[in-house]
Amino acid sequence: MDILKVQEINKLIEMTRVPQAPEYVLGILNLRGEIVTIVDLGKKLSLKSTEMSDKTRNIIVNSNGEHIGLMVERISDVIQAEWEKVEAPPANIGGVQGRYFTGVFKTEDRLIGILDVEKVLEEEN
């Protein structure tokens, strides 16, 4: 995802469940006076639920003026990608998850998908 969308990354903070919220909404929390909705990114992408561990993190993003926490199992790396080297996602990345990628970036040893945070958060599952 574009790091400019990220406000901060933090460990799990106690949150309040929201009755009748979509299954991917884990709850809300108060982060220094701001209400943040916490979303299980795995569930939102129609994948498996995020497993809780000591490596689980909330990626707090600013999306359309709202603070949203994307809960992920771990953060592996922060990589600086030169936008002119970002390519369109391959045609074989299809299905539900494929539409959430703005592009891919090739490093020496792997291919990294760039998540479109706005698109992920604007759609209801």
CATH architecture of the largest domain: Beta Barrel
Number of helices: 3
Largest sheet, order of strands side by side? 1-4-5-3-2
The first-level CATH class name of the largest domain: Mainly Beta
Please report the total strand number as a whole number.
7
Compute the separation of the termini in Å.
Answer: 20 Å
Bin the strand percentage.
35-45%
Q: Helicity, in percent? A: 10-25%
Please tell me the total number of domains.
2
Poorly predicted tracts of residues: none
Largest sheet data: 5 strands, mixed
Shape, per Cα inertia axes: globular
- CATH T-level topology of the largest domain: OB fold (Dihydrolipoamide Acetyltransferase, E2P)
Per CATH, the superfamily of the largest domain is CheA-289, Domain 4
The average pLDDT value, as a whole number, equals 85
Label the structural class.
mainly beta
What is the subunit arrangement here?
Answer: single chain
What is the succession of H and E elements?
Answer: EEEHEEHEEH
List keywords for this structure.
2 domains; OB fold (Dihydrolipoamide Acetyltransferase, E2P); two-stranded antiparallel sheet; 7 strands; 5-stranded mixed β-sheet
